[in-house]
Design brief:
The complex is a heterodimer of chains A (296) and B (279). Helices cover 28% and strands 18% of the residues of chain A. Chain A contains nine helices and eight strands. In chain A, strands 1, 2, 3, 4, 5, 6, 7 and 8 form an eight-stranded mixed β-sheet that branches. In chain A, strand 4 and strand 5 form a beta hairpin. Chain A starts with 8 loop residues before the first helix and ends in a 7-residue tail after the last strand. Chain B is α+β, with helices and mostly antiparallel strands and 279 residues long. The termini of chain B are far apart. Classes of the chains: A alpha/beta (296), B alpha+beta (279).
Chain lengths: 296, 279
């Protein structure tokens, strides 16, 4: 990405860009987040959401999403909770992720869509899309975006999480790849998305916690966590997701194996773009449901 | 086109082609692999053919055959991400988690089954052997890698990568957001890592197509990174480490994060000596 001034390694060392070089995020971050308020992230797990062959139980997943929205919004039920997030007059884009190896589960997309319809949004005023968002009239005129994708490690970004999921809103995504996609937060300031994000849902049913290379799905490092991670603060949701992957690497390898790159973009989104809290000390993690090997 | 290529078989151990070959080039590869395409394009990818093989009751097998501009690019993409036990297919291979990767000549090939299983893994390897045997071309790894010195204890060389792209350089060692060293498809670079996990020195050797190209990049680097410091004069950077750079003909040598100025100069001299020997 073209920057006003050539930002170099030395600038980072000096802290001139406001960010220090770091190799990890989460609990090891300095508490330099600008957001004064705390963020709430809900982790819902259910042992029955996946069948013996990994097939998704749609009803269980729908109830997990309901429980997450209820807990997130502090309302008596999910329907009331959704109404605090989406208005029936909204034009809603459900930004999904279609990576063929580990896509957003269609069952999750439908669960979101169902609840948005129940708020009163006309089906003609909503769309589910990933690669086509820049040419999708619903997304281009949207007033609200629900952001959902699977949780995994990522060659360019360190972690593939909610902040990364907006990269399809720019014409040349590769311009955001340098330095662990550090500047992903900038995308969130563009008019097509700015101020529209209402909910972020990381599918952590079968996250991938480690991997090498750009195109290489590696099933050795995928496990059945059977969870979703939900919040209105995308940075906090991503910080919790990245921390989960980090803890799983430690559990699996007995150390935090280095990723292709560190997920710096999460910290930069907090400190530079003020999009939310990356510091776990400022995040209230609400855990609901199945607790076995929850890690967090 | 189905079944007519010399590069892939129609059938392997009962798995038959059910999709493809679907051809891509450097402008369409994004449709197949999203942002991952950038890695392959950075190694001068020319074409990609994707085929799916299926057998009743067994996981599908996907075959991806990348043709790169030159053998050194095929080696580059293969070696950039080595992580698994080495195999004996092609000119270099590894197999892990059901994924086979190998290079031979200008080709980089990856093959994987959709799910684990002894039979599908056996067929994945067999398919790899067959594709490798049909590729008659052979090639050499990038010669520039041999120009990196071995280093000195405790800073012996531990890893090295071949690359053309500043984005890939930044992934292994962040230098600058912008392409201040003018890396591109016709520029060859080798990044060597020296020392321990705790303390690392990086040596970047870049071969430009011409001496003026090296001059321009050196000028950029001095101006932007070294604050106009002179040739071969190490600069103490903000982490109390030392950076030095020197241009030799169409080569640029840069040492980052040396523990002291003498070491930085020594690394430059060792590399210059190898350049002299190599010519």
């Amino acid at each position: 990405m073209k920057t006003e001034k050539a930002i170099t390694r030395r600038d980072f060392i000096k802290g001139a860009a406001g960010i220090v070089l770091t190799t990890a995020i989460g609990s090891s971050l300095p508490s330099a987040g600008e957001a004064e308020t705390r963020s709430r992230v809900v982790v819902v797990r259910d042992a029955n959401v996946l069948g013996p062959q990994g097939e998704i139980n749609s009803k269980v997943l729908q109830s997990m999403l309901d429980e997450a929205v209820r807990a997130l919004t502090n309302k008596k039920d999910a329907q009331a909770g959704w109404k605090t997030l989406i208005k029936k007059s909204d034009i809603v884009g459900i930004k999904t992720n279609a990576w063929r190896q580990l896509p957003t589960p269609p069952e999750l997309e439908q669960a979101i869509k169902q609840r948005v319809i129940e708020v009163g949004v006309a089906e003609s005023n909503m769309s589910i899309d990933d690669k086509g968002v820049r040419n999708n009239p619903i997304f281009q005129s949207s007033t609200a975006i629900v952001n959902t994708r699977p949780l995994r490690t990522h060659h360019w970004a360190g972690t593939g999480t909610c902040l990364k999921n907006y990269i399809m809103f720019v014409p040349t995504p590769s311009e955001y790849h340098p330095d662990g996609c550090a500047e992903l937060g900038k995308i969130w300031t563009l008019p097509v998305v700015k101020g529209k994000n209402r909910l972020n849902i990381l599918a952590a049913l079968t996250p991938q916690f480690y991997g090498r290379g750009a195109n290489f799905f590696d099933r050795r490092y995928v496990w059945q966590y059977k969870g979703i991670i939900v919040g209105t603060d995308p940075v906090a949701v991503d910080a919790v997701g990245a921390e989960l992957l980090r803890l799983k690497r430690i559990a699996h390898f007995s150390e935090d194996m280095a990723l292709d790159v560190a997920p710096r973009h999460i910290q930069v989104a907090d400190q530079k773009y003020k999009l939310g809290n990356s510091d776990l000390k400022k995040i209230d993690i609400v855990k609901i449901g199945w607790k076995e090997d929850i890690l967090l | 086109m189905k079944g007519t290529s010399d590069l892939w078989p129609n059938e392997i151990n009962g798995w038959k082609i059910t999709e493809g070959p679907v051809p891509y080039d450097s402008t369409t590869a994004y449709k197949y692999m999203n942002g991952a395409a950038e890695l392959f394009i950075a190694f001068n990818m020319r074409t990609l053919n994707v085929l799916k093989y299926e057998k009743t009751g067994q996981p599908a097998i996907t075959l991806e055959i990348f043709r790169m501009a030159a053998p050194e690019d095929a080696y580059g993409i293969f070696s950039f991400e080595n992580d698994d036990p080495r195999g004996s297919i092609g000119q270099g291979s590894e197999f892990g988690g059901g994924l086979l990767r190998f290079w031979k000549g200008s080709y980089f090939v990856s093959i994987y089954g959709d799910a684990p299983g002894a039979e599908v893994e056996k067929s994945t390897l067999r398919l790899g052997e067959q594709v490798a045997s049909t590729i008659k071309e052979r090639g050499d790894p990038p010669k520039i890698l041999n120009l990196l010195p071995a280093g000195q204890a405790p800073f012996a060389k531990t890893q090295a990568w071949f690359l053309h792209s500043h984005i890939l350089l930044n992934q292994r060692f962040f230098v600058a957001y912008d392409n201040i060293l003018n890396l591109s498809g016709d520029v060859k670079a080798a990044l060597g890592r020296y020392g321990s996990q705790k303390e690392k020195v990086q040596l970047l050797l870049i071969e430009y197509p011409s001496a003026p190209g090296a001059d321009e990049a050196f000028g950029n680097f001095k101006k932007i990174y070294l604050s106009n410091a002179g040739v071969k004069v190490p600069v103490k950077t903000e982490n109390n480490k030392w950076t030095a750079a020197e241009k030799r003909g169409n080569y640029l040598v840069i040492v980052f994060d040396a523990p002291d100025s003498q070491f930085a100069v020594k690394m430059i001299e060792l590399t210059s000596a190898r350049l002299k020997e190599g010519k």
